[in-house]
Amino acid sequence: MPMSMSVLAILRKGLSRGRWPYLPRRAWSSCSSSNSKITVSEGMPTTDLFSTAFTVWGANTNVGKTLISAGLSSSVISCGDSLSYLKPLQTGFPKDSDSRFVVNKLRHTLPCLSNITPRRILVSHSIQSVSPAVLANSPRSPQQDSFVMSANLQKNLKVRNEFYSSEQFMLERDSSSGEVSWLTKDWNEGMKSFSAFTSTFRASTIWSWFNAVSPHIAAAEEGLSVSEAALLQEIEKSMFAFSKHAGIVDNHDQRWTILETAGGVASPGPDGTLQCDLYRPFRLPSLLVGDGRLGGISSTITAYESLVCRGYDVNAIVLIDHHFGNGDLLQRYIRHKLPVFVLPSIPEDLNDDLIVWFTKTASRFNEIRDHIKVVHKARMMQLQSMQRKGGHYLWWPFTQHSLVPEDQITVIDARVGDNFMIYKNANDSDIIMPQFDACASWWTQGPDLALQLELARQVSYASGRFGHVMLPENVYEPALQCAEFLIESIGKDWASRVYYSDNGSTAVEIAIKMAFRKYLHDHQLVTETDSCKNVLCLKVLALRGSYHGDTLGAQDAQAPSAYTGFLQQPWYEGRGLFLDPPHVFMHNRKWHIDIPKSYIELNKSMTSVVKLSFQARSELFDKGRDSSELAALYKEFIRTNMCACVENCEHLAALIIEPVIHGAGGMTLIDPLFQRILVNECKRKKIPVIFDEVFAGCWRLGVQTCIQHLGCTPDIGCYSKLLTGGVVPLAVTLASSGIFESFKGDSKLLALLHGHSYSGHAIGCQAALTALQWLSDPNTNPNLLSSTMTLAELWDPARVSELSAHPEVQRVIALGTVFALELKASASESGYGSLLSRGIVQALREDQVYTRPLGNVIYFMCGPTTPPATCTKLLDKLSRQLDVFTARKHANANHACG
Question: Which UniProt keywords apply (predicted)?
Answer without folding.
Answer: Aminotransferase, Chloroplast, Plastid, Pyridoxal phosphate, Transferase
